[in-house]
């Protein structure tokens, strides 16, 4: 190995993450460490392997000497120097606490101290500071290194900048909290709507119509309630919404068979699917398969299209009375379904088979 070579061609990444050279680059610090501690080091091929591993790894690594006062750092590889912004001269001889600052968690520091005292292995995440004062979340992994006689020789520490990971966790937690709050508010909203519909129905003497409207409102509420936790990610498993809408019609009787997979769709697809399936279920109770004890309904769903950007829902009724196309009525369930599907830019096909209605609906899900 050419000891004078220092490949500066690799570029260092910018931003909040760790700065690393793009490719292997010679780092003389492992060799200097071995020369300074000849009695403690590997020999022969193992020594060369140590040098190569410490010089070329992109993981920030340091060694401290627990047998000296204040456990100073005795080795820090290039990745450690690039992570912290300090030079080798500024690092060697200092205790690792020089990376701590005002926002470093005392509980995490105490955990580190306990692991050192007990010669244990531990991993902690705490805020550390670079030389320029920039703080970062450091996932610190520490553990003991022993010699062949079992004597504690060094403490090993690896550092990983997890600032981006922590930020993603925080965003996910915030999104979940917002989803729970939104779920609570939507439940209240649907309850208020139901109350208004009931009062209006009684005042105007149209209670049966009010109940029908309320059933639709409640179906929509169930569909949203089961999917709000996933809404923050942009896509939700439509199967959860479908089950929430249809299972109240089954109540464990086995008259409903759900065969769909784990298809994920945008959150805005829920309303169209929810109310459409509710209308199909209500029609099946009044006129179709569920109007007889022997009737069964199979519901399947899948993604289709060249870009798998279409949700296809299949509704198949069996064991009910003979069915035929109903008369045109703008207020009927079928008319409502047609308007919902058109509003969603979808398509619907009905086959009035002798053994039951078969409906295939396609919703755009891009």
What does this structure look like?
With 366 residues, this protein is α+β, with helices and mostly antiparallel strands. The chain folds into two domains: 29-161, PAS domain (Beta-Lactamase, 2-Layer Sandwich), CATH 3.30.450.20; 166-364, Histidine kinase-like ATPase, C-terminal domain (Heat Shock Protein 90, 2-Layer Sandwich). The chain is built from eleven helices and twelve strands. It has helices spanning 29-36, 45-56, 78-84, 88-91, 106-117, 163-204, 207-225, 228-231, 238-250, 270-286, 333-343, and strands at 60-64, 73-76, 122-129, 135-146, 152-161, 235-237, 256-258, 264-266, 296-304, 310-318, 347-353, 356-364. A five-stranded antiparallel beta sheet has the order 2-1-5-4-3, sandwiched between helices. Strands 7-9-10-12-11 form a five-stranded mixed beta sheet, covered by helices on one side. It has a two-stranded antiparallel ribbon with strand order 6-8. A hairpin with a 2-residue loop joins strand 11 and strand 12 (356-364). Helix 7 (207-225) packs across helix 10 (270-286). The model is unreliable at 1-24 (pLDDT under 50). Residues 29-40 have a biased composition (Basic and acidic residues).
Mean pLDDT: 79
User: What name is given to the CATH topology of the largest domain?
Assistant: Heat Shock Protein 90
Low-confidence parts: 1-24
* Rg computed from alpha carbons, rounded to a whole number of angstroms: 33 Å
- Counted by DSSP, the helix tally is 11
């Amino acid at each position: 190995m050419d000891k004078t070579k220092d490949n500066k061609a690799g570029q260092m990444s910018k931003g909040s993450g760790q700065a690393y050279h793009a490719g292997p680059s010679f780092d003389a610090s492992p060799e200097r460490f071995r020369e300074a501690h000849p009695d403690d080091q590997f020999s022969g091929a193992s020594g060369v392997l140590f040098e190569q591993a410490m010089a070329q790894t992109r993981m920030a690594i340091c060694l401290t000497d627990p047998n000296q006062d204040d456990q100073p750092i005795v080795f820090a590889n290039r990745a450690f120097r690039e992570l912290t912004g300090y030079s080798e001269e500024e690092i060697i001889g200092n205790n690792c606490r020089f990376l701590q600052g005002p926002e470093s968690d005392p509980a995490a520091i105490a955990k580190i101290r306990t692991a050192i005292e007990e010669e244990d292995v531990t991993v902690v995440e705490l805020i550390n500071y670079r030389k320029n004062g920039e703080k970062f979340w450091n996932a610190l992994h520490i553990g003991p290194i022993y010699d062949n006689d079992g004597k504690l020789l060094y403490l090993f520490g690896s550092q990983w900048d997890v600032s981006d990971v922590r930020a993603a966790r925080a965003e996910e937690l915030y999104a979940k909290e917002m989803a729970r709050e939104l779920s609570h508010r939507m439940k209240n909203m649907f309850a208020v709507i139901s109350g208004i519909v009931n009062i209006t129905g009684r005042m105007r003497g149209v209670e049966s119509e009010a109940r029908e409207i309320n059933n639709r409102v409640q179906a929509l509420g169930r569909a949203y309630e089961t999917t709000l936790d996933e809404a923050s990610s942009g896509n939700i498993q439509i199967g959860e919404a479908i089950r929430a809408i249809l299972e109240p019609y089954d109540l464990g009787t086995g008259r409903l068979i759900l065969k769909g997979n784990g298809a994920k769709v945008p959150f805005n697809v829920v309303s169209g699917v929810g109310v459409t399936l509710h209308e199909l279920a209500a029609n099946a109770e009044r006129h179709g398969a569920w109007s007889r004890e022997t009737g069964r309904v199979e519901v399947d769903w899948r993604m289709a299209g060249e870009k798998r950007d279409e949700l296809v829902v299949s509704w198949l009724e069996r064991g009910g009375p003979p069915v035929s196309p109903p008369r045109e009525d703008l207020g009927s369930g079928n008319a409502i379904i047609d308007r919902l599907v058109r509003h969603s830019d979808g398509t619907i096909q009905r086959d009035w088979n002798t053994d039951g209605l078969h409906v295939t609906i396609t919703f755009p899900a891009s």
